[in-house]
Design goal:
The chain is mostly helical. The protein is 77% helix and 2% strand. It has helices at residues 10-34, 37-48, 56-75, 77-83, 87-92, 97-119, 125-137, 141-165, 174-195, and strands spanning 3-4, 7-8. Strands 1-2 form a two-stranded antiparallel sheet. A hairpin with a 2-residue loop joins strand 1 (3-4) and strand 2 (7-8). It is globular, with a radius of gyration of 19 Å. 15% of the residues are buried.
C-alpha cells in the first residue's frame, strides 16, 4: 500500500497504517457488540494489557515468534546504521533500502503482533524505551535494539509489580501503569526536542 514505483513512501505507510487501524477497530467493535458479559470483561482487560491471561504454553509459543525476529533485527544493525547517513548515501554504499524496509517491517510486525496477542495492548513501551536507549547508548542500532529488548522487559516487569501491588489483592491492568508513566515522559521528550529546535 505504501510502495510507489518500487519505493516505500513513509508518509503513505503511516496513513495506510491509520486506515488499517480504523478497519481493525471496526472489527473489534463488532466483536464487542456480539460479546457476552464474560467475553466483554476479557476483552476490556486485553485492551488495557495484562500478563495474567497467558499460560506457559502460550509463552513457549510466543518466545519463538519474538526471540528469533529480535535476533534477526540485531543482525540487521549494521545496514540500519548505514541508513542513518541518509537513504541515498546508504544505497550508494550497497544497502538495498527497499528490501531492508520490507524485512524490518515484517520482523517488527511479527514481534508486536505476538506480544499483543499474548498480553494485550500495553501502551508507550515501544515509544519510550528506544528513546531512552538512544539517550543512554547513542544511535548505534547494535546497542539500541538489544538495549530496548532488555530495558523494555525490565520496565514491564517493574510496571507489572506496581500493577499487582497498588490495589492489592486486585490487579490493575499493566497498560494503565505504562501509560501513566510513559505518557508524561514522552511529552517531556517532545518538549525537550522542541526547545532544541529539532522540529
Amino acid at each position: 500500500l505504501s510502495s510507489v514505483q518500487g519505493r516505500t513512501v513513509v508518509a503513505t505507510m503511516l496513513l495506510a497504517g491509520i486506515a488499517i487501524n480504523a478497519i481493525a477497530g471496526a472489527g473489534t467493535g463488532v466483536l464487542v457488540y456480539l460479546a457476552d458479559d464474560d467475553q466483554l470483561r476479557d476483552l476490556t482487560f486485553w485492551t488495557l494489557g495484562s500478563f495474567g491471561g497467558s499460560s506457559w504454553e502460550d509463552i513457549k509459543l510466543g518466545v519463538a515468534f519474538v526471540a528469533f525476529p529480535c535476533i534477526a533485527c540485531v543482525r540487521l544493525a549494521r545496514p540500519l546504521n548505514v541508513i542513518l547517513l541518509g537513504e541515498a548515501e546508504a544505497q550508494m554504499l550497497g544497502v538495498n533500502i527497499q528490501q531492508l524496509k520490507y524485512i524490518v517491517v515484517t520482523l517488527v510486525c511479527v514481534m508486536v503482533g505476538t506480544s499483543v496477542a499474548l498480553c494485550g495492548m500495553i501502551g508507550f513501551v515501544g515509544l519510550v524505551v528506544p528513546h531512552l536507549c538512544r539517550l543512554m547508548f547513542g544511535p548505534d542500532h547494535r546497542k539500541v535494539i538489544s538495549g530496548s529488548a532488555l530495558l523494555g522487559a525490565t520496565l514491564l516487569l517493574g510496571a507489572d509489580l506496581v500493577s499487582r501491588l497498588v490495589i492489592s489483592p486486585a490487579e490493575l491492568p499493566i497498560g494503565i501503569v505504562t501509560s501513566v508513566i510513559g505518557g508524561p515522559f514522552f511529552l517531556a521528550l517532545l518538549a525537550r526536542d522542541k526547545q532544541r529546535g529539532l522540529w
